[in-house]
Amino acid sequence: MAKLPTQREETLGGYIVHGVPFPISTDEEGLAFLKKMAPIQIEQEYKIRYLHSYGQDSPWFAALSNKRLLATRDPESGYTTANPRGHDIYSGAETKWIDITDVPAKIHAFTVCYFGSEEFLPETPFVLALVEFEGVDTLLLTRVMGVDPAAPALDWIGMELKPRFLRNSKLKPTDVYFVPKESEE
Amino acid sequence: MRPVYAISGGVSKFAKARPDKTFQAIIKEAYDYAIADIGLDFPTFTRVVDGSVASYFSDHFTRQLMAGIMAQDYLGLCPKPSHRVEGGGATGGLCFQEAWKSVASGHMDVCVAYGFETMSHVETWKGNEFIALASDVSFDYPVGGFYSGYYAMMVTRHMKEFGTTVEQMAHVSVKNHINAFHNPYSQKRHRYTIADVRNAPMVAWPLTRLDICVMSDGAAATIFCSEEGLKKLEAAGAQIPRPLVKVTGIGRGTDMMRMADRPHVDYDYFMENYATELEKSSDDTKAYYKKLWEHGTRYPGVHSFRAGRSAGNMAWKHAGIKDPLHELDFVELHDAYTSSEIQTYEDLGLCRYGEGGTFAESGKAFLPNLDYGLKLKDKPVCAVNPSGGLIACGHPVGATGLMQGVFAIWQLQGTVNKHFGSDQLQVKDAKRGAIHSHAGTGTYVSVSVLEREG
Fold first, then answer.
1. DSSP assignment string, chain A
2. Which member of A57, A113, A130 has the closest CB to residue B144?
3. Which of A24, A32, B218, B420 lies at a C-alpha separation of 20 to 30 Å from B397?
4. What is the ipTM of this complex?
């Protein structure tokens, strides 16, 4: 039998209290009592809206919204990175864009996240994977669909994949995700 | 660079939440302890100390910018020089080294390093989100930003390439929790079995909750001095135990922010640039690595931390260490995950790449006098995380690397009994130890060697 939870989930929220207990008199005895006082804790909001620029990497996101996956390549050495880099780390030279949408891809490493950061908790369980592409020197972090998150197995490593794209782009790296190569269209 | 001594330290009790005090007052607990341990009072130390380095990771957790100066102010150290250090999970280890630099360079004779983190101000899953913001927010975070997920991907690759097992990882959890059982400063004092670790809730396959460190509130402080600083402190009435503990090796390394961007170098490049001195001198090891590469291993890939290897090699060279396993009595190692302890055994050259799993279950990294309830093949050689490490002690990020420094000082002074109220965790006749601090997916790593003189 599965272990039953014995603790209720806690949240930071609580009652707003009017009238905080305090000594009636600030005489010596009353002030000394303050050293035994429990801490007051209040809630503070921290909401921020950023205007985030993808800068020189913007074409990569534009490509996803047009159902193409790009990579960058050093024109001289041919060193190719799946995550775009405006400049090559070895030569320092400006890279060029290449299209890797149809390049053979497979799982290099993966996990199934049963928990996650707050933003992604509603999406659990989800499969995270690092994907390797033929002729590309580095990997790409992505989500994999079409595999059973309840039955992860090391054999998934090496599984051939193909990209799929969101119909309605969100201009995020999750506009592309991968599925097993043999999945139905 | 001139000799630098690490003469004292203090650690606040690490806890899931410390609402009883503000971060400044929690730092002061550790700071006061370090001062009292050399027999000085607060005003006298304030007069003698030349400056400080502050360490904390996240402005988000405190919702406060410039928290460092608030601590400096609370400790009565203004207007002495200070600066804040930040480098993800390695923040404390980097702070330790910055304070060392302040003294080694001649800029200060006495320098105090203090660090803290208060992670309880947000709920756990929001905390995970804050930590995940230490991954590229354009490419990695939006895919499912979650550090346990990132480390779990490294694990699956390590398992696939080297045959590492979840039971081997669980050995690390059992070891560190049982060590921490005897450490009054630790956040978790439980005795677990391999079965407990594997039956704990799965967080990111194959890592369970007991494979992963916890979030904490806490602080730590370490005092460093030069020969001249020693004289000044003793002239002011300090009682500094002999033999002294000296910092003899400093190393650092870095790697790409996005784990996916790490290179996959060939055998020759690995042997020339990353192999340890011991590995380079062994034909057997060269043949072993050749075979790994023939089976497809590339370095560092996602299974290894070249920042850790670089930091280790640099620190070993500085300290004159050729064979870390046999020349170190202990290592306080950044075990945010059981798997990363295994990966780090390899990076630090305690064993060869690919052999971290068998090393973990061998017994070589265990303490000799504790009952772990395990059948261990080998005798202890070099205790790893005799304190209990991050997994059990807790990981208040900015304090963690300094906590390791404090525990290392106590081990080398032979004063564990005095500070822990028990000598169960005292490494017998400890002469040399290392502390290892690690950030991100292996982005910043620091290794420092401490040695007992004489």
1. -PPPP-SPPP-S--PPPSS----SS-SHHHHHHGGGPPPP--------------GGGHHHHHHHHTT--EEEE-TTT--EESS--SB-TTT-PBPEEEE-TTS-EEEEEEEEESS--GGGGGG-SEEEEEEEETT-SS-EEEEB-SS-TTS--GGGTT-EEEEEE-SS--SSGGGEEEEETT---
2. A113
3. B420
4. 0.95
Average of per-residue pLDDT across B396-424: 98
Nearest-CA residue of chain B relative to A142?
Answer: B143
- Domain range for B33 is 5-122+215-245
Which CATH number does the domain housing residue B76 bear?
Answer: 3.40.47.10
**Identity of the residue in B155, B207, B261 whose CB atom sits nearest the CB atom of A138:** B261
Instruction: Determine, yes or no, domain membership for B107.
Output: yes
pLDDT of residue A2 exceeding 80, the answer is no
Closest Cα in chain A to B19:
A39
Confirm or reject contact between B263 and chain A (CB < 8 A). Answer: yes
In a domain, A121, yes or no: yes
Tally the domains of chain A. Answer: 1
Total domain count, chain B:
1
pLDDT in tens, B231-254: 999 999 999 999 999 999 999 999
A13 within some domain: no
CB contact under 8 A, B123 and A172: no
Nearest Cβ partner for B143 among A114, A138, A174: A174
Domain membership flag for residue A7: no
